[in-house]
Amino acid sequence: MAWPATASMAPSCRRSRMAPSWSFICRRVMPRTTCAPIRIMTAAERAYLEALSDNSTGATTDSDANMNATWITTDGVLSGGTATQLRYNVGVRNRGHGTRTSRPHNFHVNIPSDRLWKKQAGINLNSQYGYSQVLGSAIFRRVEVPMPDSRAVQVRVNGVDEMSLYNANSFGSYAANEQYNNDFVKRSWPLDAHGNSYRGIRTAAADINGVADLTWHGPDYAVDAYTNAYFKQNNFIENDWSDLMTLIGVLNVTNGTTPATYVSDVQRVLDVDEWMKYMAVNTLLANNETCLANGYGDDYALYRGTNDTRFLALPYDLDTIMGQGNGPGHIADGLFLMTALPAMDRFMKTPEFAPVYYRWLKALADTTFSRAQMDPLLDQMLNRYVPQATLDAMKAFNASRVSYVLSQIPLSITSTSSLPVVNGYPHTTTASVSLGGRANAIDTRQVLANGSPADWSAWDATWTISGVALQPGINRVLVQSLDANGVEFDRNSIDVWYDDGSVHPMA
Question: Taking the model in full, what pTM does it have?
Fold first, then answer.
């Protein structure tokens, strides 16, 4: 791809719009096509952009100054009788959060709205572990969680292959990512495209600090704690943030929400099923890029439509998944990392919501993340340019991760006691006993022990009960799992010996 854009830059770098521009050429490397992005800019603009990216010569990586460029792309898709597209007066700038100084550099491309490229007014070119981003986007979209499209492309800037210059980690290709903007909204929600789109990030640039951890900082959206952490991606002129403030208020049980109304209020302001699917996919991927799903108020997006007004949680950065990336996750990472955030701790541990998370973990582990489906997807998306050894490592990681996650989801009821075992039985000299265990995490809503309700903790699928009455001798305690309709679907029993000296078990 190659494109130029109108520039917003330092005075020393201003040039006439008619001056030769930076050239960006992009070749797509996905199956059935070969696309190359090309960028063309003047030497002065190219040097200034390089300085921005390097945090040198008085420039800063935090700058969003645009350089004028020409955008040229080649792929296998004919448009106007040619597979090569060209756009003049494209704006190209540095981009990224933690990777703004990374080499090769990332690029944010702004395409004039009167000359859209493939119906898009912009694209992001990410250099870091691009193959992970391509795969992550495909997985989320496969399970119908909206996310920007991502394709592998080769990039040339003024004829130079960016991936050839430095110790690149993307096997020669950038990830060309659709931007979170109105184009993305219209494509993803064509029947509900007038809602608000937000990005949540953790900001630590210059004198700006903000963390999008969904903490309540009062009802005024204009305070720095909100404006430095949550960023509108559309509907800028309206400047209406009331929906976001309502969401944060509900999640923090304030601003009109009480403990008694928490569940119904949450169900009103966000799509619980979709949020739990978002969490489950990130968990199975072992996504270690900071986000809501692993306990950080960073790198996620939100969308609230005008027809369906429940907020959706959306992924953003996926360059650290399946054991890949800079600081990857681990096979045995916990299932509830998101609870490091107080708002998410309350949400995930709510008894009405936790089973939905477990249901998605199990369903996705058995389908999308199964070897039968994930291995072919990895080959389909990546085998044209990612080494076989890396693909094999990702397949092995996924299989082990799925096995671990499934091992953490109890599907049957168990009963245990802390009593010492004597003659093969838990033994006590008192007339009551405390018991505990686990139960089906997906379907259990209540546990009974000898007909008495036990304390049921849905988020970790554990039950406990104290004071279960015993008769002298061997007592068989019946433990039952009840579903949402109060119907027993699983049972277990445990024998306990109450020894008052009058009865002895038979040898």
Answer: 0.89
